[in-house]
Design brief:
By secondary structure, this protein is mainly alpha-helical. The protein contains 15 helices and no strands. Helix 4 packs parallel to helix 6 and helix 12 packs antiparallel against helix 13. The longest helix is centred in the last third of the chain and has 15 residues. The radius of gyration is 22 Å and the shape is elongated. The chain starts with 16 loop residues before the first helix and ends in a 32-residue tail after the last helix. 48% of the residues are buried.
């Protein structure tokens, strides 16, 4: 089998699995990175035991954090070496830990292990934990509400809002939290997810929140998401709604407006007053539904 097309970057260091595996031991960092990425791209088809072992060694011992990150990713895609993946959760590099959360969800990690990642100092690790738990059905309403109300990282609040509508048992509480989020949350992506979840709840109060704070949002993307959600709640086509999107002529919608003071159940000070950090890094690599892996053509010094 030829492996030259494994990587879209066209830098695969070898044409067989044996050759690519050998490149994991290269002295040149870029060669090891390219080999690990090639194995990520091939892992869905299965990897030899020797390759899994070599990736495990790179994941735990390589000096370069990107080699460790991509090695963990390959193990996750292959569904292999869960013990190595668990150890990678303690890596000093947040990107590696974030990737380990994704891999853990694929290699049979239990809910307690994923829940533990919600205490990580990195917001991107916590974000991936919320996504992984949400996709697996391990995120319940109390956990998601806690994330929305207390996590300082907007991506954590965004995905907690996305999953809340689908697991709400205490619907009035979910309505209250999501409506308040739609009115007060400063991050547009998080407000859009709150709107989508309100549409999923499809209650009278949810529709009222979408009309009062969603379709009039200062962000056109949020307003469009709210209109789509409102149409979904009413079982109609968005184009059939007699609703104009966009901010109203008078104050009363979106963050930094008087409307913030009219909705209870969501405490902005609580949301951004946590001692946890993690708002200054780009999103980690991972499987679909997480974020694309970092661009290796960008120098580390240029990344923020």
């Amino acid at each position: 089998m030829s492996y030259e097309n494994w990587s879209a970057r066209g830098r695969t260091p070898g044409e067989t699995e044996t050759e690519v595996r050998s490149a994991l031991d290269a002295s040149r960092v870029r060669t090891r990175q390219d080999a690990a990425i090639a194995l990520v791209d091939a892992a869905e088809s299965g990897l030899d035991r020797e390759t899994v072992d070599a990736l495990g060694e790179r994941a735990l011992e390589d000096d370069d954090p990107e080699v460790r990150q991509f090695a963990v990713e390959a193990l996750g895609v292959a569904g292999a070496a869960p013990a190595v993946v668990r150890q990678a959760l303690d890596d000093p590099e947040p990107w590696v830990r974030a990737e380990a959360v994704v891999a853990l969800s694929r290699t049979g990690g239990d809910a307690d292990q994923l829940r533990g990642a919600l205490d990580d100092d990195s917001g991107w690790v916590r974000r991936n934990a919320v996504i992984a738990m949400g996709k697996r059905g391990d995120a319940d309403q109390p956990l998601l509400v806690e994330c929305i109300k207390t996590d300082p990282h907007p991506a954590v609040r965004e995905y907690a809002a996305q999953f809340l509508g689908g697991v709400a048992e205490d619907v009035p509480e979910a309505e209250r939290i999501l409506a308040a989020m739609l009115a007060r949350e400063p991050n547009a992506f998080a407000r859009a997810k709150a709107a989508e979840s309100l549409g999923e709840l499809a209650t009278d109060r949810a529709e009222q929140a979408l009309e009062a704070h969603g379709v009039t949002d200062q962000s056109e993307d949020v307003a469009r998401a709210a209109k789509q959600a409102l149409a979904s709640a009413r079982g109609t086509d968005p184009e059939a709604l007699d609703v104009e999107i966009g901010p109203p002529s008078a104050p009363g919608s979106g963050p930094d407006t008087p409307a913030e003071q009219s909705v209870d159940g969501y405490d902005p000070a609580g949301s951004f007053g946590s001692a946890r950090s993690g708002s200054g890094s780009p999103a980690p690599g991972g499987a679909p539904g997480f974020e694309p892996r970092r661009d290796l053509n960008t120098d580390p010094e240029d990344r923020t």
